[in-house]
Amino acid sequence: MFSRKYLLLSAAGILGAAIWIGYRAECRVMDSAGNKPLTVQSVVRRVTAPREQIARIDRLNRLRHTAGRSQPSPREKAEAWQIIREMRLEDVKASLAEIPPESVYPANRMLVEMLFSRWAQLDPEEAARTAMEPPYKEQFAPIRAVAAQWGSRDPIAALRWAGTHPTPGVATNLISESAGRSLAMQNAETAIQTVATEFPYALYAVVETLSRRGDVGDEVRRRHLAALRKNGSLVSTYLEGLINRSTVQDPEKREKMIALAESAGIGGELIQEFRMDIERRSQITDYTQMTEGLLGPGSSAALETQRDRYRQWVSIDSEKALAWVQKSGREDLIVEQVKSRAGEMLLSSWQPGDSSASFWETNVRGQYEAWSKHDAAAAEAWLQTMPLDMRQFLTSHDARR
Asked: How many domains in the chain?
């Protein structure tokens, strides 16, 4: 008969083996998305962290390990963003500490970008500094997320910080560009004057954005050009944007554009180049004809090329583009655009009701409506994977006007 001591030792051994087997199985699952090495600091951090913080971190870890080395699903992306949007600054830092920063896995890269986006909402300057230092310095996504958030929420502060940073470079340029575009969308009347006197390094982004805005009147454009006329490069950038936003097929509109530039004091070679560019573009066949062959059923073009062309077409004439793809049975192009654009919006500084929303952010609502008419069940199923504010944005009464 076995002694009590023997039975206890046997039970302990079996339990230990079971724990070890379970631990190894868990390691294999966790290794699918990679983990940072276990350290004394990481153990202490987890033991001392509030219960709510641990719960949020664990939810994110489950998401990224479920995705493993695959691309996260739309539902996983939506759930991750819902968790991260509710995080405090300490939660963001603790969550980043769980993710190997050098990871090449899509789920890890997605979460790092989302976490830096949230960090920039809470403390943009610290987020920017961290994104510019190792281990994130060599990555583009973290600083891009910070630039989008900070540039949209407080463009003046972002520009001031970027201009006084001791080591200007790609990161500070990205922040300046984002903030400059935001200023141009917020106030077309004063954006050029503001950046020209205080933040000249953001002038190009402001000019390019202003030139492509479709809601700016002729008088405001005249003032823009007059303010820029001493800088030939910026004038050319502005005029090029005007051409892209105009229907150059209309001779009357072409002459009106040229007259507008001349009345602002633009002359000489710049006007001549402007006129030649307009004439050259006016001779191009209607964009519909240019595109039909590329997007038609018999096209041999790569799918990614077709999607890029459709995106360009919608930016030029959304009504024609939508009508053509629906008539031609290419609703797949609409579906892809809705999904990709909605995802980009959630990762950007977009907020519901933002009056400075870009053309594509606004246009995606019309794209979703077209998808819903074509395949209501599929559109609704995808919509349910989106956060509440995105669902409301795409389906509200105002969105369908």
From this structure: 2
